[in-house]
Amino acid sequence: MSFKPSSVVPPLTRPQLAEARRVRAAELFEQGRSGAEIARMLDVSEESVRRWKVWEKDGADALRRRPATGRPPKLDDAQVERVRAALEQGAQAHGFEADLWTQERVGLVIEQVTGVILSRASVWRLLTGRLGWTLQRPERRAVERNESEIARWIAHEWPRIKKGP
């Protein structure tokens, strides 16, 4: 199991999608659409649309996401960028034998770079969430694998076996 940076722009998160839906509802309210019509168009309940009507009193900003409450992240944005730069150097640059990132190795590099110890779950959230990396699993193939023999078996033996007695 290893991790690689994702070259694809990460999809919108659920909170981002929910905010976009609320903002779209405000636009539809401005067009004079009814609550039931907006609910059908956005595939939400009419109760949700009624709650979103606060935009009339407080403006469209009332429909925007609010910062998450609770404990702040252990790593600030500058530390995350330092971790990103360190990981992009590769695992061998940090003294590992193979150029392969695992959660344990990433956790050690985070501790070296920032001095912060993260749990395995926090390392996972950092990699997949804030850094946008994806899990990569190598294909397991036998060293002795013979592609031509496999093709011959699939073409000749498998149909015979599949037919049965």
For this entry, give a set of tags:
165 residues; mainly alpha; two-stranded antiparallel ribbon; 2 strands; flat
Question: Can you describe this structure?
Answer:
With 165 residues, the protein is mostly helical. The chain has helices spanning 14-30, 35-42, 46-52, 54-58, 77-88, 103-114, 120-130, 147-163; strands at residues 2-5, 133-136. Strands 1-2 form a two-stranded antiparallel sheet. The longest helix has 17 residues, at 14-30. The two termini are 43 Å apart.
Q: What share of the residues lie within helices?
A: 40-55%
**Number of strand elements:** 2
Mean pLDDT: 86
- Total helices: the number is 8
Biggest β-sheet description:
2 strands, antiparallel
Overall tally of structural domains = 2
Question: Which structural category do the helix and sheet elements fall into?
Answer: mainly alpha
Arrangement of strands in the largest sheet: 1-2
User: Uncertain regions: pLDDT < 50 for 5+ in a row?
Assistant: none
Overall spatial form: flat
Distance between the termini: 43 Å
Radius of gyration: 26 Å
Order of helices and strands: EHHHHHHHEH
Measured by DSSP, the beta-strand proportion falls in under 5%
Give a quick precis of the structure.
The chain folds into two domains: 14-63; 71-136.
Fold blueprint:
Layout (H helix, E strand, L loop, with lengths): L1 E4 L8 H17 L4 H8 L3 H7 L1 H5 L18 H12 L14 H12 L5 H11 L2 E4 L10 H17 L2
Antiparallel strand pairs: 1-2
Helix pairs in contact: 1-2, 2-3, 5-6
